[in-house]
Hints:
- Helices cover about 15% and strands about 40% of the residues.
- By secondary structure, it is α/β, with parallel strands linked by helices.
- The protein has 2 domains: about 210 residues, no CATH class; about 230 residues, no CATH class.
- Strands 17, 19, 21, 22, 24, 25, 27, 28, 30, 31, 33, 35 and 37 form a 13-stranded parallel sheet that branches. An 8-stranded parallel sheet has the order 18-36-34-32-29-26-23-20, with no helix packed on it.
Amino acid sequence: MSEPRGVGTTTSTERGQSTLIGVVLLIGMVAAGSLGIFLIAGDAITGAEQQSEQERVEQAFVELSHTISSSLINGDTTRSMEFNAGGQGAITKSDAGTIRIYANDEPLVDPLTMSAIEYEGDDGSIVAYQAGGVWREKGDQTQMLSEPAISYDKESQTLTLPVTTFEGDQELTSGKVRITNDEINRVTEKTHVENSTVTLEIKSEYYLGWSQYFEDEVGPNAIQEQYQIDGDLGYVEVELGLEELEGVFRESFVLSDSFDTQGAKRSDYSFEEGGYTPSEIDDEISEHVAVTDTEENRTQGDIIDSSDTISNGTHFAESVHLDKGEELTVDLSGGDATLVVDGDIELVGGDVTVRNWENDSGPDRELQIYSTGNLYISGSEVCVDTCPDSHKKHGTSGVDASAFQVYGTSNMSVGFDKGIFEGVLFAPSNDFEGPNEVLGGTGHCSDEQVCLHSNPEFFGSLVASSAHVHANANEVEHDPQTEKIDPDIHPEGWVQPPEITYLNVAVHELSIENS
Length: 515
């Protein structure tokens, strides 16, 4: 029996429709795939074009920097060059930051305005010129393309800093540009800054680039501070110059402020007051603490408070407190020793003795103590080798006070109350307001940073803000051997900045426009 029509069979019409639908779907799939390939290829081409434009713009900015620098050096009035500003152009910014210059914390000039030329790509990346430097920035990533026009002449120890400014804010398009040197303002010319640290405070939208430049050229220790202010604007503080400290222990007391006595004649003591003293070393001592505060260096535990012996190497403690009958012996037979104390040093009857400091085959050995706190010596004997029977023997016994060195912050209060001290103290302070926390609070020692009370014996030298000697029985003697000390204020591995004797700063007022 035959099947009924339409049941279990497929007509030719239905087969034709299926074929047609399949062809349509296939064409659609091919078209969609082609469109996807086209879009991907289009994105790739666009990305490649953007990258190519970015590279051309970067090269143009570097060439612009070199042209401007060459023009300033040669004294050219006008120069022209081909400049590629990309498809959307660049802009000049007449006020794009400031730079302040200090020598030993004293301003050398009024704040200087810095201009800039800037290009911003479609991806948000920035190419910028400022004071000779060219940087590429994207987010918090910075790459230096050309160094700022800062130069240092090692032979003459001269730092030259040219600052460029542009008049008005305008757009620069691709094509020929004309650069005109309108005026030169020599802010400082051969300014003598020997034995000074030069500080640059820079506010700029490109502060990350400035920071990177000085870190690469001088070392990370030159960067004193860096932070974002608002938006792209940021701040970087750079310290340059090497302060010469050798010979600073030239008197018994070297003071930035005053020297006072009670019951004694000032003329009986060797001192300098109210003159030049070195920069404060608070930051350097904090760096010592940060570097040395490890379990490995806590060789005597957290606190040194009993009789013990330390040898060469680096040691760390949170405080030192020695009572009567306790003695800390420092054995330097193996080399120099460093003790970093993140707190006070209190010798209340307890003694410290430095032994084996002499070295027949090289420089004599030293103990260097760095403290963030106060120094109090009461009835204790701090001596290089055995303390002499009489103060008159300090200078004739062959003892060198250079073997015992204490370094303190600008806020260190110092008290010598009876006892003996052979050594040097380096705690420069330009603004010690008091009170003296160890022997002050009331009376004649209330405001002085260093107080000698109840007839102590002092053999060596100290650098501080102010000092007071109470009663004429105090025995103070300067050790001339300490003048050879070049105070070692930096931790091991610290990169010293170059020494600066002269500083040249010039502001170049320029015009730049499409010609």
